[in-house]
């Protein structure tokens, strides 16, 4: 009976180690694919159809950063939000102080 219990405990310990290893591998993998401000700064003007970055803000959301860029393209301004995985999550534009927005 002790050998059976010992085997069950051993199996549970091994299963726990495997679960922890999978979680750590996933965390390391997600940290490896996140973008930095320089990469996000290239994505933002492309989302706005070109223009010049005239302002930026970085918000930390847990382990990830979220980037917000102000873009001027001619007389049109854009605010572009880019998440830690280089996905545009928000785009707002306007002219002459009037804004129209499009958010995910």
What is the strand and helix layout of this fold?
Blueprint: H1 2-33, H2 37-47, E1 52-61, E2 64-73, E3 76-82, E4 88-95, E5 98-103
Antiparallel strand pairs: 1-2, 2-3, 3-4, 4-5
What does this structure look like?
- This protein is α+β, with helices and mostly antiparallel strands and 104 residues long.
- It folds into two domains: 1-33; 36-103, Nuclear Transport Factor 2, Chain: A.
- Helices cover 41% and strands 39% of the residues.
- It is built from two helices and five strands; from the N terminus they run ααβββββ.
- The protein has helices spanning 2-33, 37-47, and strands at 52-61, 64-73, 76-82, 88-95, 98-103.
- A five-stranded antiparallel sheet has the order 1-2-3-4-5.
- Strand 1 and strand 2 (64-73) form a beta hairpin.
- The radius of gyration is 23 Å and the shape is rod-shaped.
- It starts with a helix and ends with a strand.
């Amino acid at each position: 009976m002790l050998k059976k219990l010992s085997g069950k405990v051993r199996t549970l310990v091994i299963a726990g180690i495997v679960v922890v290893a999978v979680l750590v591998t996933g965390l390391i993998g997600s940290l490896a694919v996140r973008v930095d401000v320089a990469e996000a700064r290239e994505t933002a003007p492309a989302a706005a159809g070109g223009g010049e970055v005239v302002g930026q803000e970085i918000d930390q959301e847990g382990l990830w950063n979220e980037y917000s860029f102000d873009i001027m393209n001619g007389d049109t301004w854009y605010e572009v939000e880019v998440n830690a995985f280089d996905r545009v999550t928000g785009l707002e534009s306007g002219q002459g102080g009037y804004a129209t927005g499009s958010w995910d």
